# Entry
Amino acid sequence: MGNAKYHRVKVTQIEADSACVTFLDQGNFAKVPMSSLVCLSDNLSSWPPLAHHCTLDGVCRQVQWSSEAARGVKQFCGEEVCKATVIERKVSSSKSTLLVTIAREEDKTYVSLLDYLVYSGLATRQREGTAVSRLCPGRAFLSLPHVRLRAGTEHLVEVVYVTNPSNVYVNLVGENHSYKQYKDTMIDDMQEEYGRGLPDDQMVLLPMVGLVCVAMFSMDSKYYRAQVTELLEGRRVRLRFVDFGNSEVVGWSELRRVLDKFLVLPAMAIKVGLAGVTHVGEDWSGEATEFVMETVGNKEMKMVVMEKMTRVDVCQVMVFERNRQEDILVNAMLVKEGFATTIPVVDEAVKNDCPTSADGEQVDIVQLPRLDMKPGTRTTCRVVSASSPANLCLRKLSDEKSFYQMSTELATHYRDNCAPFIRRHWPEGASCMVKTPGEGCVRARVVREVEAQKVELVLYDYGRTLTVAVGSIRPLPDEFCIAPYCWTVHLTKLEPAGGVQTWTRVACEKLQGILQVAGMEVDIEVVDQELVGDSWPVVMFVKEKDEKSGPLEPEQFTFKSVGDILKEEGLAIPPRSGSGMVDGGGDIGVETKSGLEGINKIMENIVSKK
# Structure
């Protein structure tokens, strides 16, 4: 008994010299000798049980759950801390049961226990309302700066996989073979790390499209970095090996979690196409693909970029087989062997992309498409900036991932195309890109020339203006001419209190305080499609948590109108009929004497609360 541990229990049944007990802080049951029971002290018996009886929400109940299902729950939770969200509490005369959802964080994304059990074939869903969660992978492989493959540049590459002559995957060898050495060393380390078996920390709980992982390639039984591209029936997935470009279908259980140290090297496979050639028939023949693979496969080749890469297309390149006497053009060999015909090649390296001065120059004004918002639709947004109730800039929360991806690609493009651009005049309304101290490289529109060699810009995706030197502006490439990720709104049916025409500083600071408490996340509802200038009239709501609910109670939230909060504080009033003011009132201004009425109202509220 010296090493025995005592636990708090509740006796449920007595049988001769033994007792059936429930462990209050663990939730399990056991049959123990009567001699092992001791009375609890008043202090210990006053504590409520720490174990709570829970039922998983959305799962079909079973008369008798299998031992495999129990092991599945244990395997999912392991020693990790899981997040339980209470949906409902069911109380009967004999017990209290919590209806919960349970999730576990894996690789910076949350995986649901219900999704895991259903995908594993250990449970079924109760209703359609509990469909598979829309999972978004929390990690990703880095990308090589593809825009470095500029037209006219020459690279030493290794051809690693060929789908057809229009889809060839290459690895950059790098200066002094540095890229190749990094990749080979990483692959050797992966064999040592993943060849030891399958520890629990390497198991993939639930596959999802976009998941980064490690998998064994069937042809050589070696482990390589991969990314899931499609979920198939029978708990199988299609994945692409990111350092080679080829795909394979494997079972879910064959996936391994990729360690952080194997995410450092960017995905090495770059897709290119052979320039100046096209297939003879309707599509590329197997013989053509086989010829290219036999000619260039797993060999170091010289590659010359003919047409630059865009966000959707691949680089068009000339590939030369290196020879001691002379380099042999593989593109021409394909035509010579009768597997392809020639098409004109555009050598973008000799194009003059840079317009000269404004003298006699006709500059095309490229404008981004306008965002289309439908009245009556509620949208969750992030507040980018808020100077007053009449001037707020928002971004859809659902657009943030694509916005940051676009910003990264734009910054890379700007960095690798940083030669001075000769243009002394930019017409009003022209779209461009510029590097700012705070946001980095951004998209902008020219508003006007303010002085010699300086222009005023409005930043498309941030909603603010900026004055910069003409020499710092670059043309905006066509692939980035998409709708802005930010738009201006104003709170409708609202005017400044106190009879002033502009919003007081107190009102503006109160608005910013409300938004900061809400984490700069709001719901908005467009009232009308008729814009005031470039501003949409909206009603804005913030989500407030009900603090009265306990830690094990379902979380309760309410949505409150931002305009109503400002009215309650005496900082805003409904519009007066015939006031002649636009919805949302004026912009931020200096407080006037009459504006003190709003401040006095605030002071009255504070005093009354005391």
Observations:
- The radius of gyration is 33 Å.
